[in-house]
Amino acid sequence: MKITKQTAKSKKFYRAIAERDLYPMLQEMGNSQKSIDAFQKKRLIQSFFVMVIFFFFGLIFSKWLYFGMIVGAFLFYKRKHHMVRSKYTTWRFQRHLQFSKFTRLLIPYLKQSRGQVSLYSIFSKIMQRLDDEQDRNSLYRLMSEMSSKPNDIQPFIDYANRSSGTDMSVLFMSTIFDFQQSTFDTSVIDELGKISSEELINGIDEIITFKLKRFIFFPTKIVMSSFVIVVGFAIAVLIANLSTIDL
Fold first, then answer.
1. pLDDT in tens, 184-239
2. ∠ CA 146-150-152 to the nearest 5 degrees?
3. For the chain, percent helix, then strand, then coil, each to nearest 5?
4. Which pLDDT does position 216 carry in this prediction?
5. What is the DSSP string of 146-189?
6. Helix, strand, or coil here: 32?
7. Cα separation, 68 vs 52, whole angstroms
8. Closest alpha carbon to 87 in 170, 200, 199, 207
9. In Å, how far are 98, 100, 169 from 197, measured between CA atoms?
10. Residues 6 or more apart whose Cβ sits within 8 Å of residue 165
11. Residues 169 and 96 sit within 8 Å (Cβ to Cβ)
């Protein structure tokens, strides 16, 4: 019982000190609570080792490096969060790209069917043309929920959130649900397709901007890192010279 309580307290501690968006981002990418707790634990241990490294350098070179213990550990800790956010941004873009592919496949089928073919049958054909296994499983889940809840819009909204998570995807799938409940007006779907394409282009622009920022600031980071090393060396030399001065 004590071990179980200690483990529960440790997990609460990991989650309490984590950034507000860390757990939601990793969960959305398919990670379990257990794996995220393990990631957070590893992140803390690695930050602690950074502190230890600074401590030993302080013993060997200069006690001023002791001040870098907390700063270095904090920067390393935050860097892990930044890496997760970067990976999440790329993942969201890829998810939206796959959803856009789904919409481009769906619209021609709806036009050809003219409301004479069930949406379930259309989804079944599209599922065979999807490359990503996660997308196929997600669409199959939607089809299953359509059978068990034929008059419920929630399965369509859930599919949109799993696939892309944007307002556009929710609007698109909500409209598809309305169509299957009434008549198929493909002119509305054409408009949704145009909006989806525009949003995809905006997503590409965001990714390009994000990558360019990393490239632009890379030389600055190198210069700043060199500056920190030079300043640290200068301080150590200054302290060493001061200790040799006879007053």
1. 566 776 776 676 666 667 666 666 666 666 655 555 555 555 545 555 555 555 55
2. 95
3. 85, 0, 15
4. 56
5. HHH-TT-SHHHHHHHHHHT-SHHHHHHHHHHHHHHHS---HHHH
6. coil
7. 11
8. 207
9. 12, 7, 11
10. 28, 92, 95, 96
11. yes
Angstrom distance (rounded) from CA 166 to CA 199: 9
Query: Sign (positive/negative) of CA torsion 93, 98, 104, 109?
Result: negative
What pLDDT was estimated at residue 225? 53
Rounding to the nearest 10 degrees, give the CA dihedral for residues 91, 93, 99, 101. Answer: -110
Neighbours of 9 (CB within 10 A): 10
Burial letters for 101-112: b for 16+ Cβ neighbours within 10 Å, e otherwise? bbbeebbeebee
CA–CA distance, 245 with 247 (Å, rounded to integer): 6
What is the DSSP annotation of 83-135?
HHHHHHHHHHHHHHHHHHHHHHHHHHHHHHHTT-S-HHHHHHHHHTT---HHH
Pick the more confident residue, 3 or 104: 104
Residue 225 tokens, joined = 């890192």
Dihedral, CA of residue 90, residue 133, residue 135 and residue 92, to nearest 10? -10
Q: Which amino acid belongs to residue 235? A: I
Tokens representing 133 are 């296994």
